[in-house]
Design brief:
Elements lengths: L12 E5 L5 E2 L5 H10 L6 E2 L1 H13 L3 E7 L5 H6 L7 E5 L2 H10 L4 E3 L3 H7 L4 E2 L1 H11 L1
Parallel strand pairs: 1-4, 1-6, 4-5, 6-7
Antiparallel strand pairs: 2-3
Length: 142
């Protein structure tokens, strides 16, 4: 819905990569891997504060929609419980980067944000941008 209009016109939707961008699992060393198997990796996960701050701003202060993009292999009940109080409108579950590309092409998602160059290259779309580039895009539109 765009500006309260209930027509078929959709507003701007910004999709953020969830795993390894917004949510980072602690698995750097052997001790982390042991603790992950005991307690579960989602319970030990950390939120990237830069991404969280941008998402909070978009969710609360703009008319844009804020999506979290999760690969099907990472989608678990523990993850959804972990994300319950985070600022996002929709959780988008995808099987492959090609599904993100198709969402960008058909307009279901306007921008896809991820700082990993390799994953963005798999999407192969000029609307797959970094967090820094998103800041420039939002400044232009505000």
């Amino acid at each position: 819905m765009l500006h309260g209009d209930i027509s078929n016109q959709a507003g701007v939707t910004i999709g953020f990569r969830c795993i390894d961008f917004f949510v980072r699992y602690k698995d750097n060393n052997f001790g982390d891997k042991i603790l992950n198997t005991i307690f579960g990796k989602t319970k030990r996960a950390e939120i990237d504060e830069r991404v969280a701050h941008v998402m909070e701003f978009i969710y609360r202060k703009t008319e844009y929609n804020c999506d979290l993009v999760v690969e099907e292999k990472d989608y678990t009940k523990d993850l959804t419980d972990f994300l319950d109080d985070k600022p996002y409108n929709r959780l988008v579950v995808v099987k492959s980067p090609a599904q993100i590309t198709s969402r960008l092409i058909i307009g279901d998602m306007t921008w896809y944000v991820d700082d990993n160059d390799y994953r963005r290259s798999l999407i192969n779309n000029h609307h797959a941008i970094t967090l820094r580039e998103l800041g420039q895009v939002i400044k232009l539109k505000l």
